[in-house]
């Protein structure tokens, strides 16, 4: 009897244990699921979500004020060591900038040197800090935003061409900008990097005044503007990115960190249209200034086109590129005022990072009053460019359609350039194949198909249009037949032009209205031949310039005719 009672109690207790264990596992499973859901929700949370849930009072101080504390720590320690920084940096800046001042010395001066240079007792204040991810595993890039209202003691010893010596003091310096520090290469030896590259990444504001010690600088006409321009050019040349100063920390060769060319930017300044008129009588006389770095010897200036708000330049320039990822091309269009200062019509810029190496980019850039002001709704005109970026060491891979020299036959040019611009290819068959690919001259076939929505110029609301085709360099002209009383004429006429230099020539198509006693201008299209030379053939509908409406439908075809010199 006792055996059966014990057996029943044992079974009951076993079942109770099993049920209890199962219920416990279910509870734990639900808790794990709820915890996993919570963790997943936190993982999806953004900083903005956390700020909505928790007020700043709930954060520890090292989270809320980490950035502020870092900057406070930097500013505190910079203030402590500033006397030593002043002594070292003053001498470094003086020895670096003085030769550049001499290089940009105005013609009215015979000498321009520092007689005294110290940065003063007021240390700059860091207001921002960021680490830049650039994909380079062998370096760390840091950017520091800095504000400095200092009390430096800077005196320039100036001598004019007349032999007059003037001590000029640079006062009231106010500066705001972003400095870039690159620690490279990273090494195992303390302090874990071999050198530091210092550069001014962005110059937000730079103000200063000039004062002749014991006199008035305005007594010498033009002196203040000349010195101020020289100082700004010297800063641009020595400190502004991509210029940099390399400071070795550990012994080693750091020549690879020095500023060097990484490629060439080819620019064809084609034309501008609908420019703002700056003259009261007549029209503006526009010219363009182009640069990648605003240094006098690197800035290019176009010819002046007199009395024209739709100038055609068709000029080609080359610019040295030192950092394609951050540099940009700037175009400024001015109205020439003769002996007076030219008046800015508008400016534009394009980032070099937008260009695909080895590919020509055709762009129209809208002109604005100031590159720093993004909200400028006033229409100032547009400028037309063709751009080609050629990285160094890749000349054999990328075709340079802008830089072809028509005085050299294709074989000679290829043998000169070679694989890397220095050595010729050894395989004769490859030489012949490459030779046949190079285009020197050709025949341009232009089919004027039709026009759409031309503006009405006759009293009855119609027009008698025809098209005049002009090859700019040779001034070869052709014209279509007249289509009577039509704003949507169809011509389907083809014209052939012998072109000597297709990559530097232009095709101008002017639409006119034929009248018994004259003709009326209706609009025009201006085309470079770069695209048809590179593509061989294309069809396109072009908007008429200088017209209220109208489009021209064209079919262009390029037939290369290489010319080789007899041996």
Automatic annotation (TrEMBL):
Name of protein: Synaptotagmin-5-like
MF GO annotations: lipid binding; metal ion binding
Family in the record: Belongs to the synaptotagmin family.
C2 domain span: 244-365, 425-542
UniProt keyword Calcium, yes or no: yes
Compartmental location: Membrane
Function, in words: May be involved in membrane trafficking.
Domain SMP-LTD per the UniProt entry, residue ranges: 67-250
Keyword set, alphabetical order: Calcium, Lipid transport, Lipid-binding, Membrane, Metal-binding, Repeat, Transmembrane, Transmembrane helix, Transport
Principal place of residence: membrane
Keyword Transmembrane helix found: yes
Alphabetical GO biological process terms: lipid transport
UniProt gene name: LOC108995670
Superkingdom of the source species: Eukaryota
GO terms for cellular component: endoplasmic reticulum; membrane
InterPro entries from the UniProt entry: C2_dom, C2_domain_sf, SMP_LBD, Synaptotagmin_plant, Synaptotagmin_SMP
Database matches in SMART domains: C2 (SM00239)
Membrane topology type: Single-pass membrane protein
């Amino acid at each position: 009897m006792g055996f059966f009672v014990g057996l029943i109690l044992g079974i009951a207790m076993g079942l109770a244990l099993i049920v209890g264990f199962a219920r416990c596992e279910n509870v734990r499973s639900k808790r794990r699921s709820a915890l996993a859901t919570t963790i997943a929700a936190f993982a999806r949370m953004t900083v903005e979500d956390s700020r909505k849930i928790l007020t700043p009072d709930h954060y520890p101080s090292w989270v809320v004020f980490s950035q502020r504390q870092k900057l406070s720590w930097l500013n505190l320690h910079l203030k402590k060591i500033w006397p030593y920084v002043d002594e070292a940096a003053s001498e470094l800046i003086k020895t670096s900038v003085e030769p550049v001042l001499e290089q940009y010395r105005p013609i009215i001066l015979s000498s321009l040197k520092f007689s005294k240079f110290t940065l003063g007792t007021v240390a700059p204040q860091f207001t921002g800090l960021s680490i830049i991810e650039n994909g380079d595993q062998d370096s760390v890039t840091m950017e520091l935003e800095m504000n400095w209202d200092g009390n430096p003691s800077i005196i320039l010893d100036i001598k004019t061409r007349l032999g007059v010596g003037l001590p000029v003091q640079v006062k009231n310096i106010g500066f705001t900008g972003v400095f870039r520090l690159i620690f490279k290469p990273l090494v195992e030896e303390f302090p874990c990097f071999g050198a530091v590259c210092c550069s001014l990444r962005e110059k937000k504001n730079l103000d200063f005044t000039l004062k002749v010690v014991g006199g008035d600088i305005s007594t010498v006409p033009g002196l203040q503007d000349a010195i101020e321009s020289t100082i700004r050019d010297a800063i641009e040349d020595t400190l502004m990115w991509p210029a940099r100063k390399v400071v070795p920390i550990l012994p080693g060769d750091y020549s690879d960190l020095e500023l060097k060319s990484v490629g060439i930017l080819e620019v064809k300044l084609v034309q501008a249209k609908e420019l703002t008129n700056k003259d009261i009588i007549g029209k503006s006389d526009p010219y363009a200034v182009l640069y990648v770095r605003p240094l006098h010897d690197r800035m290019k200036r176009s010819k002046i086109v007199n009395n024209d708000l739709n100038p055609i330049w068709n000029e080609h320039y080359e610019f040295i590129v030192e950092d394609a990822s951050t540099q940009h091309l700037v175009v400024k269009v001015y109205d020439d005022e003769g002996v007076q200062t030219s008046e800015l019509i508008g400016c534009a810029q394009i980032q070099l990072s937008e260009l695909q190496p080895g590919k020509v980019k055709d762009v129209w850039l809208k002109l604005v009053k100031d590159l720093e002001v993004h909200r400028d709704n006033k229409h100032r005109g547009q400028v037309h460019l063709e751009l080609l970026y050629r990285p160094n060491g890749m000349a054999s891979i990328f075709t340079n359609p802008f830089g072809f020299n028509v005085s050299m036959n294709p074989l000679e040019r290829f043998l000169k350039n070679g694989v890397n611009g220095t050595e010729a290819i050894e395989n004769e068959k490859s030489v012949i194949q490459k030779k046949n690919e190079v285009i020197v001259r050709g025949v341009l076939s232009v089919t004027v198909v039709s026009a759409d929505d031309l503006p009405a110029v006759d009293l009855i609301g119609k027009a008698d249009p025809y098209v005049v085709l002009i090859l700019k360099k040779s001034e070869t002209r052709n014209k279509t037949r007249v289509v009577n009383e039509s704003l949507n004429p169809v011509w389907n006429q083809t014209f052939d032009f012998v072109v000597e230099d297709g990559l530097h020539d232009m095709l101008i198509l002017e639409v006119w209205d034929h009248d018994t006693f004259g003709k009326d201008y209706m609009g025009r299209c201006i085309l470079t031949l770069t695209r048809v030379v590179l593509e061989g053939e294309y069809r396109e509908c072009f908007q008429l310039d200088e017209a209220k409406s109208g489009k021209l439908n064209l079919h262009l075809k390029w037939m290369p005719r290489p010319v080789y010199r007899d041996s």
